[in-house]
Amino acid sequence: MDEYDVIIIGSGPAGLTAGIYAGRQGLKTLILEKQLAGGAGLMVPNMENYPGFELVSGKVLIDYTKKQALKYAKINEMEEVKKLEIISDHEIKVSSQKAEYKAKSVILCTGTTHRKLNAPGEKEFLGRGVFYCAVCDGPLFMGKRILIVGGGNTAIQGALYLDTIGSYTAVAHRRDELRAEKYLQEKLKEKDIAMFWDSVIDEIKGDMFVKSVVLLNKKTNEKNEYPIDGIFIAVGDIPSNGIAKDIRLETDKNGYIITDKSQKTSIQGIYSAGDVTGGVNQWVVACGEGAVAALSAYDDLMRIS
Ligand code: NAP
């Protein structure tokens, strides 16, 4: 069984930054990622609030960060952690579908997954017109009619991106006010993007592929059917906390992992950082938390050695 000082689970901005910091402290560090390095970071179209970059895409920032992290840590992509076992303080067995490892510390940076609407047709047309990531799947819809559902940053950034690549874009939001940051709202106003306010999805319809959507206006109780080619659902996130729950790590009522200011969790030797800990879900915050988690792990290991 390979042994590491630190095993980081997840390789979004938090996990990669934790890898850089842990490795630079001289800790033997492994990052395990169930998909490709970058996680949800890869899906961010454009960021204008990451310090040092006036405009940068998530993919570009991940590419830079991954390259930097590889100088200090081993990164195993497509390796999903299935189970953690606490053997004793700072002795944790980490099992993936490929191997078993022993770690003195574990940093959970498992992020979040897309919240589902549970609307009729959503499950049936998944991948056949229903999508959750505008950057990943948007290019399929150049010149086509797209509805984005949601009023947060992800929805509005997605709408702006789809408009840029030439889709006929509309947004449906359940209230009459957006949650997205003001600068995104201003950009939206400059574009020719239709808004359906106070509207929820009543049904997604089609044959092999999505053909239309029925919207219910919550104020008027009116239902209207609109022809569309695709629908992007961006109604927030739920924490990916499965392995954390299995070891009874403390979470809040919404399932986000509870940490202190040093990113320590309720179990000795386990730290957590990034979106899975809740809060404001900003790239720069995830990086900061990843750095703090790695430095906390280092401090604790120095104390026990
Ligand atoms: P979010 O901020 O939680 O917004 C979710 C949106 O979906 C809200 O407008 C919400 O409506 C709506 N919604 C939730 N459940 C719904 C349902 N069942 N039916 C219809 N609408 C529903 O989620 P997000 O936009 O994915 O952002 C997640 C986090 O990442 C946030 O903290 C955000 O700031 C951050 N983020 C930041 C950036 C950036 O830095 N630029 C980019 C993307 C995301 P209500 O408004 O009525 O609640």
UniProtKB/TrEMBL annotation:
Q: Which Pfam families match?
A: Pyr_redox_2 (PF07992)
| Annotated signal sequence range | none
Domain FAD/NAD(P)-binding as annotated: residue spans: 4-290
Q: Does the keyword Oxidoreductase apply?
A: yes
Sorted alphabetically, the keyword list is: Disulfide bond, FAD, Flavoprotein, Oxidoreductase, Redox-active center
Question: What are this entry's molecular-function GO terms?
Answer: oxidoreductase activity, acting on a sulfur group of donors, NAD(P) as acceptor
Record InterPro entries? FAD/NAD-bd_sf (IPR036188), FAD/NAD-binding_dom (IPR023753), Ferredoxin-NADP_redctase_2 (IPR050097), Pyr_nucl-diS_OxRdtase_2_AS (IPR008255)
Cited PANTHER family: THIOREDOXIN REDUCTASE 1-RELATED-RELATED
Q: What is this protein called?
A: Thioredoxin reductase
Query: Which organism does this record belong to?
Result: Methanobacterium bryantii
